[in-house]
Task: structure prediction
Amino acid sequence: MPIPHDWKLSATEAIALQKELAHQVDATTPIPLETMRYVAGVDVSVKNEVSRAAIVVLTYPDLEVVEAVTATMPTPFPYISGLLSFREGAVILEAHEKLTIQPDAYIFDGQGIAHPRRLGIAAHIGLWLDRPTLGCGKTWLIGAYTDPTTERGSYSPMVDKGDVIGMVVRTRTRVKPVFISVGHKATLDTAVELALRCTTKYRLPEPIRHAHNTAGQYD
Result:
């Protein structure tokens, strides 16, 4: 199994690796929603070519923050659409080593299999962690869809090349939707359900909202 692997690759090598790893993603195992105790949010902020990753762990289903870790390193890879995990993966894994609580599932600020090669950051790092993960993108990357209705909890499929690769999900009534996709060891239904269960009064699920705020807190 080629995970873990070297992160220092050319763009061509990175694309080839994505195509190889995509076949290992598990999109058929439901997230264990009823037995989970902890859910984590994962995000990375880049400032002046320095990357700061944050992983924030919350209790589930109460959504109380119980742990937050960060890691910082020089940004190792240029911004290239579709290759975000090579820019952010190493610093996320460095932060992850600091965790004392093992999350049952992870929500990434980014894409899962809603990706041209079906291996966005939530899927790629999900393979590395070998834990349930899902992607929650603030913006669209790929896939045709129609807007869901304006009510909270409504959703519509994203389709690419005949495959349903994710759901456009309305987490708040009359607020812009988010883009949910499977990362690893998750089904699309349970990924959408977890995202909705973790969303309170804001557009973003609480785990990645906290991770976003923590990653952006540079000294």
Q: What stands out?
A: The mean pLDDT is 95. The CA atoms of residues 96 and 198 lie 21 Å apart. The chain has one domain: 11-215. The chain is about 25% helix and 25% strand.
